[in-house]
């Protein structure tokens, strides 16, 4: 079964209902299925079976339709970030040599189709590409056929391309239904870019169950709040920074249609839960932890009693274990590598390095360190690649960051290791203070000392007013480290 197998069923069941919304544009189920078929026929005729098709496009009707068509045709979509440097995109294309490139940029070499208008309406994409009006029968791809290569940052700076087959997502859909029960009656809002796998998954999963899916070209908190109201959205996907800014932009009128808020990418701040409840009084909240390579690993639902310091219990279909580097399972409360076994795991890397990836049998780890408590809730300690060694002791900065972010005056925190002649590395804490907040280093030291041993308490603190975020809404730790080492962060807290 492929990720698009159910679309024809929904087209027959509710042909005239809206399946997909992009800004002012809408497309019905019948038209969506027809346009995907046309484009799948075009892709099948233009590329060899199993060939790759690179999509270098902004979030748009063209990107959504082409991604689905490539999957239906049994080909592999390479979803490139159009906001990445052109040199990075060219390097990826040189490594992967796709059979076809669809881009708005004519500078790419090879078999490139240039869409002069990347924001073509749904109804024009197939015709502009010269797709046949009657493509005939497009063969259903095998469940283990690769359909997607996404890209995530690698430790060398060159993106890692992770490859997935259809079954990894169709199994996710099956277990997603157990956890969240999303159905054809739902309206799903995915307000982020489709180069982010969270929102691409939201699109495909929503269509798979027959829900109406709303896409946005770019995330804007005010537009997100308006769309929830105007479209009566019932499910919202987002990363914490997006959800927090949406709450601020929405005002005080409750958005009562929402029944699920699904958050991923970082831990939800404990102090923001009340604001979430006030704006979405009828919604359940869940945050899930995973990685590009693993997909869902754990889920923490607000009404299931997950400890605030944990990332929840194992997601349906996943088995989470803590092991040492040799693969031996460790007891409860003992920290080690977080491993997962599930049908959601990726196939392999299409490009880029993966020094943190560990495999033991069917279990996989991406290098995160954590422990399971006596109730089988997972607590993350940190990432092996971010480990700091100071005075001979191992420190995982995420542990310190989580405590700092529990302070009511701090919105974001990042702890770095800076070279030190006597300690090896010294801890430096960078924070983003909330509006109208002033803090001294001594106050933060006292806050940390209530929870952490002395060797985990930084002595150097600085405020960063313009907090850098990655495209996926996460803290840009590499950018902060470079800025600190260059002396560009000057607001020291004394």
TrEMBL record:
Superkingdom of source: Bacteria
Domain annotation AMP-dependent synthetase/ligase: ranges: 10-349
Pfam families: AMP-binding (PF00501), AMP-binding_C (PF13193)
PROSITE patterns the UniProt entry points to: AMP_BINDING (PS00455)
Bilayer-spanning residue ranges: none
Domain AMP-binding enzyme C-terminal: 399-474
Coiled coil spans: none
Gene Ontology molecular function: any one: ligase activity, forming carbon-sulfur bonds
This protein's name: AMP-dependent synthetase
């Amino acid at each position: 079964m492929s990720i698009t197998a159910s679309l024809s069923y929904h087209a027959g069941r509710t042909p005239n209902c809206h399946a997909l919304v992009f800004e002012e544009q809408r497309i019905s189920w019948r038209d969506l299925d027809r346009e995907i078929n046309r484009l799948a026929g075009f892709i099948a005729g233009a590329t060899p079976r199993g060939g790759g098709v690179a999509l270098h496009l902004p979030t748009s009707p063209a990107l959504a339709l082409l991604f689905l068509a490539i999957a239906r045709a049994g080909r592999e979509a390479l979803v490139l970030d159009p906001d990445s440097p052109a040199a990075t995109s060219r390097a990826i294309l040189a490594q992967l040599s796709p059979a076809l490139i669809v881009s708005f940029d004519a500078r790419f070499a090879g078999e490139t189709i240039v869409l002069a208008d990347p924001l073509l309406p749904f109804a024009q994409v197939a015709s502009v590409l010269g797709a046949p009006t009657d493509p005939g029968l497009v063969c259903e791809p095998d469940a283990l056929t690769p359909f997607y290569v996404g890209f995530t940052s690698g430790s060398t700076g060159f993106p890692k391309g992770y490859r997935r087959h259809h079954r990894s997502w169709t199994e996710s859909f099956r277990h997603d239904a157990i956890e969240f029960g999303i159905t054809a009656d739902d309206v799903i809002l995915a307000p982020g870019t489709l180069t982010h796998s969270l929102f691409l998954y939201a699109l495909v999963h929503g269509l798979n169950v027959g829900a109406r899916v709303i896409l946005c070209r770019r995330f804007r908190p005010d537009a997100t709040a308006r769309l929830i109201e105007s479209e009566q959205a019932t499910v919202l996907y987002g990363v914490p920074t997006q959800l927090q800014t949406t709450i601020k932009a929405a005002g005080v009128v409750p958005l009562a249609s929402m029944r699920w808020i699904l958050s991923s990418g970082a831990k939800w701040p404990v102090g923001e839960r009340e604001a979430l409840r006030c704006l979405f009084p009828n919604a359940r909240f869940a945050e899930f932890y995973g990685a590009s390579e693993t997909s869902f690993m754990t889920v923490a639902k607000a009404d299931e009693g997950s400890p605030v310091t944990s990332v929840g219990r194992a997601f349906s279909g996943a088995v989470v274990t803590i092991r040492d580097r040799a693969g031996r399972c460790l007891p409860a409360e003992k920290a080690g590598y977080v491993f997962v076994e599930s049908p959601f795991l990726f196939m392999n890397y299409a490009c880029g390095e993966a020094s943190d990836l560990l495999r033991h049998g069917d279990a996989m780890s991406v290098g995160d360190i954590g422990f399971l408590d006596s109730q089988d809730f997972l607590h993350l300690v940190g990432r092996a690649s971010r480990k700091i060694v100071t005075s001979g002791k191992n420190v995982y900065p995420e542990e310190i960051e989580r405590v700092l972010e529990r302070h009511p005056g701090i919105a974001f925190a990042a702890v770095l290791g800076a070279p030190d002649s006597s300690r090896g590395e010294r801890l430096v804490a960078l924070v983003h203070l909330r509006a109208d907040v002033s803090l001294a280093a001594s106050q933060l030291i006292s806050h940390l000392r209530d929870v952490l041993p002395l060797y985990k308490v930084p002595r150097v603190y600085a405020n960063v007013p313009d907090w850098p975020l990655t495209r996926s809404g996460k803290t840009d730790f590499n950018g902060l480290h470079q800025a600190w080492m260059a002396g560009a962060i000057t607001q020291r807290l004394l």
